[in-house]
Design goal:
Elements: E1 11-18, E2 24-25, E3 29-35, E4 38-44, E5 53-59, H1 60-66
Antiparallel strand pairs: 1-2, 1-5, 3-4
Length: 67
């Protein structure tokens, strides 16, 4: 961040968005699946349990709107 930027201009890259229900969440919930003897952990939406998740970011001002 340089001198001209304010904290509200900083983007957080650790926000997930569910492609099915549109829910935004910062803390990932994981589903553990075993396939062919290999264990995988997949991120799921805490609201609808969908595995269709994308990684995004939000600005501080977007977060303040929800409070």
């Amino acid at each position: 961040m340089n001198e001209e930027q304010d904290t509200k201009d900083v983007w957080r890259p650790d926000v997930y968005i569910c492609n099915d229900c549109g829910f935004r969440f910062a803390k990932a919930e994981y589903l553990t699946i075993e396939e062919d003897g290999i264990v995988f952990q997949r991120t799921v939406c805490p609201k609808c349990k969908s595995e269709s998740i994308r990684l995004s970011s939000w600005k501080e001002e977007d977060h303040k709107r929800k409070e």
